[in-house]
Hints:
- This protein is an all-alpha fold and 367 residues long.
- The protein has one domain (3-364): Glycosyltransferase (Alpha/alpha barrel).
- It has helices at 3-13, 20-36, 39-66, 68-75, 78-81, 85-102, 105-132, 138-141, 148-163, 172-201, 216-234, 242-276, 285-289, 309-329, 335-364.
- Belongs to the tellurite-resistance/dicarboxylate transporter (TDT) family.
Amino acid sequence: MSRYQAIITNGVRNFHPAYFAMVMATGIVSLAFEAMGFSAIAKALFLLNLIFYLTLCAVLVARMAFFLPDLKSDFLTLRRAWLFLTFVVGTNTVGMQLFVFKHAIVLAASLWLVALIGWFMCIYSIAVNLVSARSQHIHEIVTGATLLVAVGTVSVALLATHLLEAIATPPGYVYFAVGAFWAFGFILYLVIVSLVTHCLFFRRFELADWDAPYWICMGAAAIITLAGADFVTHLPLLPAWNGIRECALWMTLFAWVVGTLWIPYQVIMDIRKFTRVGIAGPVPLCVKVFPWSRLALGRQYQIYDPPAWSRVFPMGMYTACTLALAKAAGDESLAVISYYWGWFALLIWALTLMGTLRSLIGAFAPE
């Protein structure tokens, strides 16, 4: 076997499930820029995301076919099991893009069904892992990636809400089911984020332990906001639904406030880690000016890894959810935030993509 064949084989065998976060991130940034009115950027990211998704699905299928024991081992490892939910969210995100850009209702519905099946499989795997890990301490079990349980649940409700547009007059129980799934995801978020908060603030937490998945503390609240705002917008304009609409809108606003409050802490932690951890000697100028440049630039201080995409998805989702909330609440002043934050999210997306490409090129570079 040649060196390049060995690299490809090992890449498939050790395929990191967090790579589907790249699909999540690219998809939501695309949808956010479409909502902002930059269709050219949005459609370019949509086409790129289709390539990402099909490529990663092909690798996942190859891993299932040739390295099934390794895949099962990941499913039975709790810290890896959370990450398989990125496939669920990524699939729903691509379904959303197909619905928005191509009005491909049948294909979007098919992806929603695949994501729903994947969600059940992941939740079952996580439940089995939690039973076997019941003797461990909370901080050994719960990480930022744990919040993917809530994100995956809400993503199913989010795409389902948009698919309701394809039904002429959806029966009331369908809206109730979608709303219940969204509310269930909200409850999961409140429970899990409480545990994550305990681990971050009420036990010794080293700066080196800070990682991109902790951004999901904000990202999960953001997708709850987006799904809630879309649910409120799509509810029938009938007196019987007025109480549910008002309750859902207040819950959505609460989720947005919670997500917003997480942002300063997460930005500060990112800056502290990028400017202090792994740097011997003076901090490089590019890192001082823009700490996130370490995701892509520099040979010595580059800090990219696959979970880094977990930072981009929350940033893009916050842009999209704020625009959706402004529409649902009838307060366009909220939309101003998105037009600044959205470009920041796109810049972090570009740097993370550069880090990914450098990592892949470095793997094939001659020694």
